[in-house]
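A reminder before we start the practical. When you read a complex entry, don't treat the lines as separate problems. The point of joint prediction is that each chain is placed relative to the others, so the output describes one connected object in space. Small molecules and nucleic acid strands, if listed, are placed in the same frame. In the example below there are two entries. Take a minute to note the order of the lines before looking further.
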Amino acid sequence: MKMKTGALALLASCAACLAQGSGSEDVVLRAMTDEMARAAAELRLEGLARPYYIDTLVLESDTYSGAAVFGGLARSRRTPSRSQGVHVRVGDYQLDNTNFSGGGGGRGAYDVYSLPLEDDYLVLRRHLWLSTDEAYKAAVEALARKRAALRNISLPVVLNDFARQDPVQALGRRARLEIDQKKWEERLREWSAVFRRYPKILSSRVEAEASAGTRWFVNSEGMRVREPEVLYLVQAFATAQASDGMRIHDSVWIAARQEAGLGSPAEVRARIDAMARRLSEFVSAGTLDTYSGPVLFEGMAAGQVFAEMLGRNLALTRKPVSEGARGGLGPAAGGLGGALDGRRKSRILPEWIDVTDDAAQAEWKGRPLLGHYEVDLEGVRPRRVELIRRGVLENFLLTRLPVKGFEGSNGHARLPGASGTWLAAPGNLLVTARETRPEAELKKQLIEMCRAQDREFGLIVRKLDFPSSASREDLVNIFSGQGQDERPTSIPLAVYKVYAADGREEPVRGLRFHGFSMRNLKDIIAAGDEPHVFDFIDSGSAFALMEGSYGAETSVVAPSVLMDDVELKGSEEQRPRLPVAPHPYFARQK
Amino acid sequence: MTARVVVLAGLLWAAAPAEEAALLKILRQELDRSFAILREKADPPPYFISYEVTDQRTQVVSATSGALTADSQNHSRLLDVTVRVGDYKLDNYHRLRGQSGFGGQGSGPIAISLDNDPDSLQASLWTHTDRKYRQAAERLIRIRTNRTVKVEEEDTSDDFSPEGPITASGPPATVDLQSGAWTARLKKLSAAFGRHPQVLTSRLALHVESRNQHLVNTEGASVEHGRNYLRLMITAQGRAEDGMDLDRFESFEAAEPGEFPSDERLLGVIEGMAGDLKQMRAAPVAEPFLGPAILSGRAAGVFFHEILGHRVEGHRQKDEAEGQTFAKKLGEPILPLFLSVVFDPTRRKQDGIELNGWYDYDNEGVKARPVTLVEKGVLKSFLMTRSPVAAVGRSNGHARRQPGAEVVARQSNLMVESSRRVPEAELRRMLAAEARRQNKPYGLYFRDIRGGFTTTGRGGLQAFKVLPVVVYRVWADGRPDEMIRGVDIVGTPLAAFGKILATSDRPEVFNGVCGAESGSVPVSAVAPAILVSEIEIEKQRKAQDRPPLLEPPK
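Here is the predicted structure of the whole assembly.
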């Protein structure tokens, strides 16, 4: 099922906004509600349980996707689509068919996943009818197998399978894509032509996506949600190769809920230009074998660190019941998340830092927050959650799936999980330091520490490669270069030596974090007073790589932080040969 | 199908040839530059480089039950770069023993500029030539090591056969599609399924594509050619009471939109498909059976494609990981002596029906030509690319691939010719007689198939499966034919061939898409109905679900 979670930053925050279209005919909503009512009342296999819960999700989107390389347009297409998904639960809130690894989905026998693009009531209902039928049968079978599996296991802790939730009515507007395709083609050509001024850059490309649509969510408890889903995205990627063969890369990533939010075309071009200039600078930078000492994570880099380190660890995992002998609690299969399981009340950060998630917040100091949304994927409104108070872990991000110590959603179901459940992920992660120093003072403090420790230099990291923008070839190298027992950590992209003697900065390339994990957060010794907003799309994979099209738009607001005792070492990845022939365009310029 | 005379199938004189030549010039300029520098400075140096650009303009329109489900268009240009290091005798494409395929030399599709912008295009060409060169150089080193370590190979033919410089060009293929008219038409036609409750889901889809290829190589080849693919597909699904999924599929191919059947004819096809589903619901499930059968022309085409076609693809004859069923059988009979098989990529139509598998030049720029594969039962050749095998040293224009994959020998239009032809009524009589002779109560008639698959690797089963959709029992005692469901045909190739007794006198066309190592390529099979003395069927995997529990919404 394709999905991008929605947000409503465009409308003034209004809880149950009955915007235009809801009073008048919303054929999709009517078809969903009517078929849901019929299924809830009548659907059953004789002698077997009827559904105690049904939900239906319909996602409509009209997406423009474009790309250009070195001044030439490579792609420009617009694709409308509409898809649906139905979840059925049989059993009851204590024990149902979900959260079971032997469950599987429906057979997918019926070709009904994609819905008609038009508002044809009967055809929509037919598709939902077959989808619901399949989901119900799969649920009945899964529950039977789960009950059989449970006879052979004793679970250390017995948790309910589903938390109750009061229904919400949140009917927002439907969004339509307005796009001037020709204009976008021109912009893409122009933006990608920026790289014609940077001979040190081996390859580059610019991509843009504009998507507008609507997400409907209806369930048998009375939940009715209609949310606009709008996202504009511009990305630029560039790769360069140093004379020792090391490949380096960088990117630009800009997202907004309105076209104007991206900035003017000239502003976008300026950002791409700045990235190209910095990457060219780093090509000639020196390397460093090893470093162990203080590091200043400045601006965006701090947000990235918190996003990657805390991010999805703020959701408690719950292992699904499996058909083998082992079941119960523990890190979910797949490896990501779960680092904070069982650590409630332990210290994660210094006692002068708090972390809160507040997805209901639409903007921060006048700047729109990408991670804002009205209702999550289960239709629950996000609550403000004080996750870390005075450095101590107090709460987690929750969905309707009960986890150890917590039952009841706080509105953070944002990514698809296994076995009919949703994964919790942050919306707007707000990192607040109660003690701060002026931004400029942080660098001074770094220098002082270096002098005190008799170091020639300290390091400033201004950007990490999170989400990763590496090419497939480079990613393979990066992954293989990581330690076997380490969780993958994004690589630092923009690192600078700061000399203790005179405060002079010098770029360094090819460093990798070593043993960098959540434990390092306790080594934060100072924070700046100008928090920075870092937006990204979380995918649930390592390095936030977008494998499919699932994404949870997220914002992290965090101050720059000075961290003591960070270890880095020089990359040991394979270094491909340098190209034998010079670049055709730049060879001609000479 | 309404009779239409089409002067030049697949081409419309719309865009100026000058635009196409411009692209070729840009490719040629960078090719020559890269090659010259690499020859001089790279170690090992390349001895051959080629660039092929596949320019595709596609449109998809589909509808179900009177509502539109898809309406989009796309224009893409994909680049394939081939770099060869070493020499014609031994290069980086040599098989690495202990490893099947080309060891990851494919790259996935590379999208390049749609504009004929030399700077953008050449930057992309350069990036990918560099990457391919590095892969090629590394692989050659491994091959050289591999050869000294392993046992002497059986087939010591060269790795690349020579071809002279070829130049070809023509106006690009284009299609003028009135998409508005088609959305209305598909919506109207798709609504016709609504009268039939046994049809649970259905769809009409129109895929229209203009595909133009541009190829240059360092031997001086400069080839531009293209064609259109227009395909109208109708699918319908139902489900039997015992949970078995039932489906029907029909497709129509055309060189331009006006060639498609009329609404009246299509409505007739839709009624027929719905009627089949109704009959299939009521039909008994087949039991495993060994006995005589007739495969309709379409079913026979798939049969030959799977059993014969995949086993005569040139590269398989040299690959010691392959079964090599026919590798040593050149000059020997492999089919009954009344059958011949020709692969003819130059044939564009059969009895007015557009063939999927035609092309003017293959993906190595070699001119397409008919290949007599089997003559009066005797194996004469293989389908060849520029990778020679011991018995056949030159390409015969069957190097094909989906953009992003490496070429291998693939089928084109498979045409089965028979000198033992009888009218269909006579073939049916022969079937009943054969059943009686074998003391079987019935023979089988396979009217339509969905497709098939086969495994050719040495480690695998060496079998094939053809997936029938509409099957009947033909009773030896003359009572009316009885439809059955849930059947798969199984067998092993050599055994199956010996059992063909006779054919009908009317060829039918099966148009499809074949998937194999080099990706999906469009193909066709043209064959008359065949009578086989022995075919084996087994039960299809059946789903356990029931039909939908609730009535359809009203």
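Discuss with your neighbour: The radius of gyration of chain A is 25 Å. What might explain this?
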